[in-house]
Amino acid sequence: xxxxxxxxxxxxxxxxxxxxxxxxxxxxxxxxxxxxxxxxxxxxxxxxxxxxxxxxxxxxxxxxxxxxxxxxxxxxxxxxxxxxxxxxxxxxxxxxxxxxxxxxxxxxxxxxxxxxxxxxxxxxxxxxxxxxxxxxxxxxxxxxxxxxxxxxxxxxxxxxxxxxxxxxxxxxxxxxxxxxxxxxxxxxxxxxxxxxxxxxxxxxxxxxxxxxxxxxxxxxxxxxxxxxxxxxxxxxxxxxxxxxxxxxxxxxxxxxxxxxxxxxxxxxx
Length: 269
Prior knowledge:
Elements: H1 8-33, H2 39-42, H3 53-79, H4 97-125, E1 129-131, E2 134-136, H5 142-168, H6 177-206, H7 215-219, H8 221-242, H9 245-262
Antiparallel strand pairs: 1-2
Helix pairs in contact: 1-3, 1-6, 3-5, 4-9, 5-8, 5-9, 6-8, 8-9
Keywords: Membrane, Transmembrane, Transmembrane helix
Transmembrane segments: 12-32, 52-80, 100-124, 144-166, 178-201, 213-234, 246-266
């Protein structure tokens, strides 16, 4: 589906939705980092069913933002979109059950194929894929179940995010679709970028961290910045070829869950 040429009101909803999403993303991250009920779970201060505290924290934050995104999209559609040519079937939000389950199958097969390549390279060449703070490596079978533990939370975010990027925010900016994609990738990562920069600038200038915002929480955001930007681009590329926003949503959730589970400490009681 080609990008829509937005009206002035359409652009207001576009930019307004992005700003609200970014603000909520940053606020919710700080709020969770200060939540007294969550801290024992994240830092293994008390027995719980959560085997990987850091992964659970990020997945929970992602799910909360996915739900917020669904609310924003619903309000946008009811207040503006349905009166201004937004067709939920045409843009893939309501693709039909066949296409929906095809998306699940395609995401599963693609993920399995990708990690099979990782396994082959690890087995024969003792190497894997690493870039800055992202490591895609082979893992023992128990990590699959750890990934499934957080997968529902990641699914809420990445499916909602793919629908938002491709069905609600797929608009032409300066007659260039790539500008729209770049803007959405930036706003996906904007709140984490701001939080990391603010933390390090505060530490550099004062020697202290931001009050109430622990240093580990900004460290966890480094891979998140990369993941959120890259998955936005992947989502758009897949949508342009398929007109189905759910394929990228399922695929990104699966891959991110596996990468996260295979690179994090496991605590057992």
